[in-house]
């Protein structure tokens, strides 16, 4: 099997999302033990029932840049809440955050038509504060893969390959395979993330690695290869949004 370099994890939960079970320090120790260089702290945006309030996110700037040897980006897994791709964090808070994963969740997003899901993703991609579309293979939210993935490629945004999907959303695996194959076809970045809810699983990508290998996925399209590729990418996206 090909030995892909994936030394960061841009989608992790702490116990600030109460259906997750580790602290930020524990996640950093877990990340270090699993050979990572950096993690994005991405708890659920405030509209999820288990989420912290907005101040959790706007106050994250008090955290150190490195914790237990791990670079920590201050982020969120924002909820896309409507078919216009709006998310549940204010501009003020978003201005203080570094890396935003935007996802559909059944608690905060009503399943609609393929066109409505596609439009929500297209609008979300236009938002300069959104960097990654999270677990987009979720079976109840089909969308037009070609349209959305081409646009992600054009804008330099990332589509997520989510390890947790293989364990908790098995009905979505076939979709994930199709989506990642389209990312290869259109040259879109992917972010390989654990979506870990416990520290031992931060940076563990056993099923995702197998899929990448099967698809002979190009290493250079994995945006979270290491801390440097992530920091450079975030800087480039920020600069592009100012032009
Ligand atoms: Zn999620
Ligand atoms: Zn998550």
UniProtKB/TrEMBL annotation:
Which Gene3D superfamilies does the protein's record reference? Metal-dependent hydrolases
Q: What is this protein called?
A: Phosphatase
User: Which Gene Ontology terms cover its molecular function?
Assistant: phosphoric ester hydrolase activity; zinc ion binding
Its GO CC terms?
cytosol
- Please give the InterPro entries that the UniProt record associates with this protein: PHP_dom, PHP_phosphatase, Pol/His_phosphatase_N, Pol/histidinol_Pase-like
Q: Name one Pfam family in it.
A: PHP
Taxonomic source organism: Anthropogastromicrobium aceti
Domain Polymerase/histidinol phosphatase N-terminal as annotated: residue spans = 8-82
